[in-house]
Design brief:
The complex is a heterodimer of chains A (92) and B (155). Chain A is of the alpha+beta class and 92 residues long. Chain A is built from five helices and three strands. Chain B has one domain (9-146).
Chain lengths: 92, 155
């Protein structure tokens, strides 16, 4: 059963969720390059999704540098799948 | 945030296209490099071939073991490479569709492995292990290159 989610539906956040749903975790820089957005735009979108409990952000020091990994939470994954389901229902 | 959107079917279709496009492009983030794809395919094909050719602990038992070791090492290298490049592969399915996208090919691999063994050992058809090895190796290579991302939504 689909459920529309206005937070996820915004173009940049929809792309972000689609990308995150495809992998376990993706690094911030990889997300930024793949989505072709600026650091500030991506940070803002992640912050909004994080506040809603849809994404998790983990900072780890690996190979001598700080890396920020982003992933969809279970709640975020469910919301995204539901949202896509609702879009399909609208398309018919 | 969660209520009726009032968006048109055209808008919804555009959004779904975006999701499909991004999902397809995500495949390029997590698929193995070409050389590793070839190593994985050859080692998997060798395991299939060796299993079908094994008889009374002949030399192909060793082929199966070597193929298995190379396959596991190459798979570890694949996961490590992905981590280095900033995208960790999803190892466990999180929807029924993604579970199906794993079990479907897995059932075909298994069918080829067991069918190859049955036909080579039982019916004595000598060329079957070669065919089984090539089929499984090619299929694995194709799946790794084009479908590294588990499906979470239908098209």
């Amino acid at each position: 059963m689909g459920r529309f989610n206005a937070l996820i539906h915004a173009p940049n956040r929809l792309k972000l969720c689609a990308l995150l749903a495809s992998a376990a975790e993706i690094e911030f820089m990889v997300l930024r390059n793949h989505l072709e957005v600026s650091d500030s735009v991506l940070s803002k979108q992640i912050k909004l999704l994080r506040e809603a409990g849809f994404v998790k952000l983990i900072k780890r020091k690996e190979y001598g540098r700080q890396r920020t990994w982003i992933s969809l939470s279970n709640r975020g994954h469910k919301a995204f799948v539901d949202h896509v389901g609702e879009l399909k229902k609208i398309v018919g | 945030m969660e209520n009726d959107p009032g968006i048109t079917p055209d808008d919804a279709r555009l959004s779904l296209d975006t999701v499909s496009r991004i999902t397809d492009s995500a495949n390029t983030l997590v698929r193995p490099p070409f050389w590793l794809n070839i190593v994985l395919a050859i080692s998997f094909g060798m395991m299939t071939f060796s299993f079908a050719s094994m008889q009374h602990e002949n030399l192909w038992t060793l082929g199966l073991i070597i193929g298995g070791i190379v396959f596991v090492l190459a798979m570890m290298m694949y996961l490590y490479t992905c981590k280095l490049l900033g995208a960790k592969v999803k190892l466990f399915p999180d929807t029924w569709l993604s579970l199906g996208s794993i079990l479907g090919p897995a059932a075909i691999y298994m069918l080829v492995v067991l069918g190859g063994r049955a036909l080579a050992d039982g019916a004595g058809i000598a060329w079957i292990p070669y065919l089984a090895g090539v089929v499984n190796g090619t299929l694995l290579s194709y799946m790794l290159h084009n479908h590294s991302v588990m499906k979470f939504q239908g098209r």
